[in-house]
Every structure is written in structure tokens, then in C-alpha cells.
Amino acid sequence: MSTTSEVSAKPEAQGREVGVAILGHGTVGSEVRRLMEENAQDFAHRIGGPLALRGVAVSNPTKHSRTVPEELLFDDAMELIARDDVDVVVEVIGGIDYPRQLVLAALNAGKSVVTANKALVAAHADELAEAADKAGVDLYFEAAVAAAIPVVGMLRRSLAGDQVERISGIVNGTTNFILDAMDNTGASYDNMLAEATRLGYAEADPTADVEGHDAASKAAILASLGFYTRVNFSDVHCEGITGITADDIEAAKNAGYTIKLLAVCERITDAEGTESVSARVHPTLVRRDHPLASVSGSYNAVFVEAEAAGRLMFYGNGAGGNPTASAVLGDLVGAARNKVHGGRAPEENTYASLPLADFSVVPTRYYINMRVRDRAGVLAELSAICAKHGISLRTVRQEEAEEGARLILFTHTASEGDLATTVKELEAFEDVLAINSVIRLAE
Ligand code: HSE
């Protein structure tokens, strides 16, 4: 069995001790443990009682024996969770299946849980929320979206008195780094992905980032909170950045835009006044004078439009050991306060249960980059195809190309379905040599 590492507090922090178990001791877990020890006095005052680390669960204890006292290292996470003196479990392992078992075991045993695991929350939110409700404990996950940027708490608490209309976020640092570097240098996607890997922004397998899956998990969480409606990872329409070319970046620049991978969560109201929720992740042309366009490098930002608050933007580091640990510790202080003083954090409330919008009804605008035969009448014929589907063109730019002419079209707003059908028809038209790319524009 393990002993307990206790932290002393000034006399006025007299509340009961709160036992903490940390599951995982990687970049985030080790920072959480270090900062918890370093700031023990302050945390005791903020909570009203001291935090006591009961143990750190890791798969290979020997690897961590230089930084964690041996008696606090556990190779059996379930054993640590089950201890009577553990009140709050911090899950910073990552993955889905194994953490799901651990988090459910903790909640079912009446422990509050703080997790940084976006994939877990986005895939199993209902099950986890139900277990937390049944046990009357807290489930916190601020670090799951954009690390230290306080967007979860903002939606759960600060905007609980408002009506959120749209959330547009740059919530993946790796892809923002790549797109920003392409914008700055004119280089190709492959070259800038290699640069992101060399600098340690992109993982050895960058799939989850560049295909948009990481951002889609975060979009699901933001949409669920913003619209009081359960949105899961599988409900989010997701497209990554692998098809973005230097040519697209250049064309966007010439038209006054930059390309960002946006997570867009939106309340859609149809002509009959029926509301639905759309959550999607895709490359998006953002006007250069929009606040999100200035988010450079690996930074994250979340732009919220709410009925009474108007427009708000939250900006900062969306990943990394320290920023993620900051969010985890904020949640830990909240969960510990409730253990000392009673009460619960605002639970996940999905009372509105709005239907999920079919992707084809989402209003959007398209940028279409295509190559066409350079002969009289082609433009008129292309315009006729657009008009047939109710698509109005906002700007058309033609340039010479090696073969034929390059056309850059910007449409006015139409439904995703009508725009997609139009592109299919353009693609099949004999004078269209190639549709190079189609990218949506932010409203
Ligand atoms: N890989 C993510 C990013 C951080 O690049 O922002 C963790 O979600």
C-alpha cells in the first residue's frame, strides 16, 4: 500500500483534506503533479482544505521513479481509484477505451473526475454524464478543448444566461501552424507538414490533426455545451487540410482571405422557424480583417457570437504540458472545493435536444478553383449551370493557365446541398478540364 504525500496549509485553510489520484504521468500528468506540489499552499487556501496526492498510476513505474516517490507510484490504476481516501481522479492518459473504463469506475465509486481527454468526452459524453449524475459527483473537462483557454467554463457558466448563436474556433494548433506557414512562405502542404514535424508540433502520425478528427472532437464538445444538445464526434461533418494547395493559399490571399481549419458550431433556423444544430470542421476562407485571421502559428482561438453578449474571442495556447495542466488544475480546484464545501459543478444539460441539421441544408459560400477550356461562351455556360441551381456568383476571376484558363469563382450564400450539386454538374461539363479545389467561406 502507499503512503500519502500531504501538503500543509496556513491555519485558516481548515477544511478537510481532498485525496487526489493522477492517472498518467506524461507531459500533462507530470506538470499537474509538479504544479500541485509547488502551489500546495495557495491551492489549500483557494479550496479551503489541502490537496493530498494519494498516487500516480502509470504503466511503467520504474520510468517515473526519479520524479515520483516510489510509494506513490501505482501500476494498477483501478487499485488507486478504489482507495477510500481518493476523492478526485485526474485522467490524463489519452485514448478512449481504457480511460473510459477508468473514468466510469471512478464516477461509479463516487469520485469526481477531471479529464483532459477530448476523444473520450466527445465519444461517450452521455454515458459519463449519466454516471456522474447518478453518483452526484463532478465531471470536469476544461482541458479537453483548447487547453488553458477557458472555453468550456465560459459556455457552462459565463454564458449560461445568454443564447449562443455560433461558435467558430481554431482549435487545432498543428493545422494552424501548417496553414499559417503556407500562407507566410507560399510553400506546399507537404513541406510545411515536414516543418511542423521537425519542430515537434506535428506528431509522428499526424492523421488525427491533419484530417480534422482532433478538431471534430472539440467541436462536438463545444456544440453540446453551447446549444444544450448532445452532439457526438460522429455527428460532426469533418474535412481535413491535406488537400489545400499553395495555389489555394495564393488565390485566397489575392481575394483578401486566409485559409484556416475552422470548427463551426451553429444554430440554424429554417424558414418555418425550426431550429437545428450544425457542427462541422473544414478548411475555411476567413477574411483577413476577421479576428480569427490573425491567429498565427500553433495558437488557438474560439470566437463566440451570442444574442446578448455579442461577439467574444478567446485566444491562447491550445496545447502543451503547462497550458493543459493549468486547465486541469483549475478543474481540480473546483472539484476539490465541492468535496470540501458540498455542492456540484453545473452538470451537462442537454434539455434543448435540438435536432442535428442535415449537412445539405447548412448555408455557406464556396470558393471554386477550376481549369476550363478558353473559348467563347464558356463563362456564360458555367453561369447558366450555377443559375439553374439558384447559385449566384459574387466574383469571377480568370487567369491564363498552361492549358486552358484558370477560373476562380466566389459564390454568394446558398445551401451546402445546392452548392455541392452545382460543383458536380460543373465537373461533368465538357469544357471544364478540372475542378482543382472547393473551399467554403466563413459567413
Ligand atoms: N494535437 C492538438 C493540436 C493538441 O495540435 O492542437 C491536442 O488536442
TrEMBL record:
The lineage of its organism: Bacteria, Bacillati, Actinomycetota, Actinomycetes, Mycobacteriales. Keywords: Amino-acid biosynthesis, Methionine biosynthesis, NADP, Oxidoreductase, Sodium, Threonine biosynthesis. L-homoserine binds at E203. The gene is hom. Its EC number is 1.1.1.3. NADPH binds at K118. It is an enzyme of class 1 (oxidoreductase). Residues 367-440 form the ACT domain. GO terms for biological process: methionine biosynthetic process; threonine biosynthetic process. This is Homoserine dehydrogenase. Belongs to the homoserine dehydrogenase family. Gene3D superfamilies: 3.30.70.260, Dihydrodipicolinate Reductase, domain 2, NAD(P)-binding Rossmann-like Domain. The keyword Heme does not apply. Pathway: Amino-acid biosynthesis; L-methionine biosynthesis via de novo pathway; L-homoserine from L-aspartate: step 3/3; Amino-acid biosynthesis; L-threonine biosynthesis; L-threonine from L-aspartate: step 3/5. NADP(+) binds at L23, G24, H25, G26, T27, V28, G29, S30. It holds the Pfam family NAD_binding_3. The active site is at K218 (proton donor). Its cofactor is a metal cation. It catalyses: L-homoserine + NAD(+) = L-aspartate 4-semialdehyde + NADH + H(+); L-homoserine + NADP(+) = L-aspartate 4-semialdehyde + NADPH + H(+). It comes from the Bacteria. Catalyzes the conversion of L-aspartate-beta-semialdehyde (L-Asa) to L-homoserine (L-Hse), the third step in the biosynthesis of threonine and methionine from aspartate. One of its GO terms (molecular function) is homoserine dehydrogenase activity.
